[in-house]
Amino acid sequence: MKILILHGVNLNMFGQRDPKHYGTETLEGITSELTRLANELSIAIDSFQTNHEGEMCERIHSAHTDSTQAIVINAGAWTHYSYAIRDALSVLTIPIIEVHMSNVHAREEFRHHSVLSSVVKGQICGFGTQSYLLGLRAAHHAVKHAPA
Ligand code: DQA
Q1: Does the active-site annotation cover 7?
Q2: pLDDT value, residue 54
Q3: β-sheet with 2-9: strand ranges across
Q4: Is 100 noted as a catalytic residue in this protein?
Q5: Would the N or C end of the chain have less CB density within 10 A of its end CB?
């Protein structure tokens, strides 16, 4: 099983950025926890982070042809306004799980709305690094139990 993990704008700054909301774990630390879980579940993961919206769209486009079976995405602030990323995701027919480290619904009002929510299978937020691990489990389950 092949699952793509996408990290959007500013998420390379985890570990240094706003520890009250994001804790102190770095993106590398999150990736190694995901790799450990992926090995346990026999998943091959590919992780990608960018601060450039067009690059993120292009990585999503390539998921059409590289046999990606599901996506776990934390789009960062793009979650709240990027119709470009929403449209790129909407073309895919594979399960997409939206994750956030913080509980976006308990924060500023602009974070309450996700323009991605109508094209994803579900959203997991508020559990720090666990949001990613739960997201990977949800993606794995969705692929395993997809209707034939
Ligand atoms: C975030 C929440 C977003 O509102 C914010 O812009 C981020 C991180 C999270 O993981 O909690 O960059 O996606």
Answers
A1: no
A2: 98
A3: 44-49, 2-9, 70-76, 96-100, 122-125
A4: yes
A5: C
Contact 95, 121 (CB under 8 A): yes
CATH class of 2-144: alpha beta
- Counting ligand 1 atoms within 8 A of each CB, the residue from 9, 111, 125 with the most, and so the one to mutate, is 111
Q: Tokens 């929510």 sit at which residue? A: 117
Q: Which helix (H) or strand (E) holds 14?
A: none
Sketch the domain layout of the chain as residue ranges: 2-144
Question: Can you tell me which atom of ligand 1 is nearest the CA of 10?
Answer: 12
Rounded distance from Cα 78 to ligand 1 centre (Å)? 9
Nearest CA to ligand 1 atom 13: 76
- pLDDT per residue over 90-125, tens digit each? 999 999 999 999 999 999 999 999 999 999 999 999
Q: Which of 7, 80, 100, 112 is catalytic?
A: 100
Beta strands in 29-147 (DSSP E): 44-49, 70-76, 96-100, 122-125
- pTM, 2 dp: 0.97
Q: Which atom of ligand 1 is found nearest the CA of 103?
A: 11
pLDDT digits (tens, 9 = 90+) for 18-41: 999 999 999 999 999 999 999 999
Q: What is the mean pLDDT of residues 128-136?
A: 98
